[in-house]
Amino acid sequence: MKNLLLAIDIGTSSCKIAIFEPDGEIVAECSKAYNTYYPAPGWVEHDPNEWWQAICAGIRECIEKNNINPQNIAGIGIDGQSWSCIPIDKSGNVLYNTPIWMDTRAKSICDKVNAKIGEEKILALSGNPFQPSYTTPKILWFKENKPEIYKHTYKFLQSNSFIVFRLTDITSQDVSQGYGLHVFDIANYKYDENMCRAMGIDINQLPDIYKCHEVVGKVTKRAAESTGLCEGIPVVAGGLDAACGTLGVGVYIQGQTQEQGGQAGGMSICLDKPVKNKALILSPHVVPDLWLLQGGTVGGSGSLRWLAKELGEHEKIEADKLGESQFKLIDNLASKVPVGSDGVIFLPYLSGERSPIWDANAKGVYFGLTFDKTRAHFFRSLLEGAAYALEHNLQTAEDSGISVDVMYAMGGAANSRLWTQIKSDVTGKTIKVPSSDNASTLGAAILAGMGTGIYSDFEDAVKQTIQIKREHTPNMENYKLYKKYFNIYLEIYEQLKNTMAKHAEILNSK
Q1: How many CB atoms lie within 10 A of CB 242?
Q2: Which residue pairs, CB below 8 angstroms and at least 24 apart, start in 59-63?
Q3: ∠ CA(385), CA(353), CA(133), 5° rounding?
Q4: Rounded CA gap, 126 and 333, in Å?
Q5: Which residues contact 16 (CB under 8 A, 6 or more apart)?
Q6: Which of 30, 48, 281, 455 has a Cα at 20 to 30 A from 482?
Q7: Is 166 helix (H, G, I), strand (E, B) or coil?
Q8: What sign does the dihedral 112-193-272-178 (CA atoms) show?
Q9: What are the residues facing 343 on neighbouring strands?
Q10: What pLDDT does 264 receive?
Q11: Where residue 355 falls among pLDDT bands split at 50, 70, 90?
Q12: Does 225 score more than 90 pLDDT?
């Protein structure tokens, strides 16, 4: 019976493959890592061909190790990291590595475009600030710095649309990833020809727009041979990983909010109309006629992985001996430090920072170190710093009159009871954790189920697949203390902002 749903997630450090039953139960899953390249200061790249190789290997592994008949796969959904910019030629060849969401090479281009066209005019159409992390400045970077690449580019693709193309030979642009393009009219889901002309972008290099659950095409014979899938399986357009994850934790109704703790951190507030705030991120939801007001920060699980690699060798060795997770032992270590980390405050700006400060020059900072501080203080204050970044975005949303009471957690960080409780205490919000920590792939699978008729509507899909397994309520005494430290957190950045810019000038002059 064709009722299995294959989901593909293109993350920052690896891809995840998962095969779901219609009730949300995972019958197979695996992940495959690939490289991240840092060829120059502010440059962060992926090779999309490595994504495809990893995905092919992952699909074959899931099918073979779990004895799955690929004929039982009803549909395929794909979610991916934001703000890719993949130039392909007419034969489908990748012409250059894609700058990813952490890449800030186009900062000077943003300054010029904002001055020429006007920040408010761009925001009014696209709902987003013209900042280097987005796709549009990267397209202009190719035009300005790699004219031969730009000349031979047939289409610029997003992460998920690239994999859709590899599977179907059809180029597409899903609605939810349209927010990366400042020529995209976010209220009406279409490209604006006047803004294309103003920015000097060829509209013909932008793929046709599809709804996220719309079937774009079917698996080709060549793709079937590469992946072990059957030819002819329907493939939907898919969407932004954060938006798919938002659906995957059950957020599909106006007013609900997702809290994200993957490689990056942040939140997504579900709205029934586009609300524009230049300090935040606005994207269409993968659910039609809804939008997500988002905060996207660098301070997520990626920050913890960095610190675990550099300072967590003891926990890694112990974890290997005990058959435990290194991060569980780090949690235990951090839990021994008092709330507020005895005054140690961490700014999680390890690759610049996105919302709400939008500062490519921002740097990570540990403040408040004294001789009595230990490794445990470094770990706990990192968890708190990521929570402060979340709170900064929530407060910015309140500036637009949007308040949040309850958040639904997703990402690897949601597995940490300590980290989730810290976020609850810092923000003063209740946080609910669904039973599945595979929110992004589940959301992509739901889109495939919608496109192939397995679910009657999104309400039906959420009811079938998602349950809450635990709930965190804020300790208000902790909240009061964190409020004091949060104000210092904000002040540290303001005091160091100009110094960070001078520091970046030195680094970039090398």
Answers
A1: 29
A2: 59/6, 59/8, 59/17, 59/227, 59/228, 59/229, 60/227, 60/228, 61/17, 61/30, 62/17, 62/18, 62/19, 62/28, 62/29, 62/30, 63/28, 63/228, 63/229
A3: 150
A4: 44
A5: 7, 8, 9, 29, 30, 31, 58, 438, 440, 441
A6: 281
A7: helix
A8: negative
A9: none
A10: 85
A11: very high
A12: yes
In 285-412 the beta strands, taken as DSSP E runs, fall at 291-297, 345-347, 365-367, 406-410
Q: Is 444 helix (H, G, I), strand (E, B) or coil?
A: helix
Classify 297 as helix, strand or coil.
strand
Tokens standing for 104?
């800030």
How many C-beta atoms lie closer than 10 Å to residue 508's C-beta?
12
d(CA 87, CA 91): 11
Expressed in angstroms, the distance from the first to the final Cα of the chain is 61
Q: Which amino acid is at 321?
A: K
Which residue in the block uniquely carries the two structure tokens 């997504």?
Answer: 268
- pLDDT value for 317: 97
77-104: pLDDT as tens digits: 999 999 999 999 999 999 999 999 999 9
Tokens of 209: 């727009």
**Residues paired with residue 506 on neighbouring β-strands, in sequence order:** none
325: tokens are: 């997770």
Asked if omega into 87 is within 30° of 0 (cis), the reply is no
SS3 content of the chain, % helix, strand, coil (to 5): 45, 20, 35
Check if the beta carbon of residue 209 is closer than 8 Å to that of residue 158: no
Tens of pLDDT, residue by residue over 156-209, are 999 999 999 999 999 999 999 999 999 999 999 999 999 999 999 999 999 999
- Residues of the chain with pLDDT > 70, as a percent, come to 99
Distance CA 309, CA 312 (A): 6
- Joined tokens for residue 121: 């005019």
- Residues of the chain above pLDDT 90, percent: 94
pLDDT digits (tens, 9 = 90+) for 281-293: 999 999 999 999 9
d(CA 296, CA 299): 9
What is the C-alpha to C-alpha distance for residues 218 and 169, in angstroms, rounded to an integer? 9
Token pair listed for 144: 């300005």
Q: What are phi and psi of 45, to 5 degrees?
A: -130, 155
**387 has pLDDT over 90:** yes
The pLDDT-based confidence of 229 (bands split at 50, 70, 90) is very high
Query: Residue 27: which residues within 8 A CB-CB, separation 6 or more?
Result: 4, 19, 20, 21, 66, 68
In degrees, rounded to 5, the angle at the alpha carbon of residue 47 between the alpha carbons of residues 45 and 53 is 145
Q: Which residue has the tokens 């950045």?
A: 493
Q: Provide the mean pLDDT of the chain.
A: 96
The answer to whether 79 and 444 have CB atoms below 8 angstroms apart is yes
Confidence of residue 2 (pLDDT cuts 50, 70, 90): confident
